[in-house]
Amino acid sequence: MNIEIRYFSRTGHTKTMARTVASVLGKTARSLDVPLGEEKVDILLLGTSVYYAGVDKAVKKFISTLTPDKVGKVICFGSAGIIDSSYAQVKGLLQKQGVNVDDREFHCRGEMFKIHAGHPDEKDLADLKAWTEGLSLL
């Protein structure tokens, strides 16, 4: 099974989360700047975050390159300081591309201007690790 991990992070929070996911799966987490290869990706774990209540244009651009013949399924993870999750926004963008989006999602708080200071913290990362282990992808 071809599993890839991609993330977008301005502050490093989602990068840390992506590396946690990667460590569980024995994979490498790469930023969205690294395109997917030629081989179809069965599962893409996509790490995003929300800035000013919206998905960054870099995430939108990356998603616009995805098609059902390139990606079998996307599983989302991420953080946000204010809104509950970026899942609905990301799912909508992926569905417009015709890409299958898994219902399983991991979300935690992210630090934003001292709000939720220190998040994602060690407990958040332990929860993410447990969630990733529970995906049973390998």
Identify the notable features of this structure and list them briefly.
138 residues; alpha/beta; 4 helices
Report the biggest beta sheet as strand number plus sense, adding barrel if it closes.
6 strands, mixed
- Structure classification: alpha/beta
Count of discrete alpha- or pi-helical segments spanning 4 or more residues? 4
Instruction: Give the number of DSSP strands.
Output: 6
Rg is 14 Å
The dominant shape is globular
Helix content: 25-40%
Task: Give a brief description.
The protein is α/β, with parallel strands linked by helices and 138 residues long.
Provide a descriptive summary of the structure in words.
A hairpin with a 2-residue loop joins strand 3 (41-51) and strand 4 (54-55). This protein has 138 residues and is of the alpha/beta class. Strands 1, 2, 3, 4, 5 and 6 form a six-stranded mixed β-sheet that branches. The chain starts with a strand and ends with a helix. Helices cover 32% and strands 29% of the residues. The chain is built from four helices and six strands, in the order E-H-E-E-E-H-E-H-E-H. Helix 1 (13-25) packs parallel to helix 4. The relative contact order is 0.20.
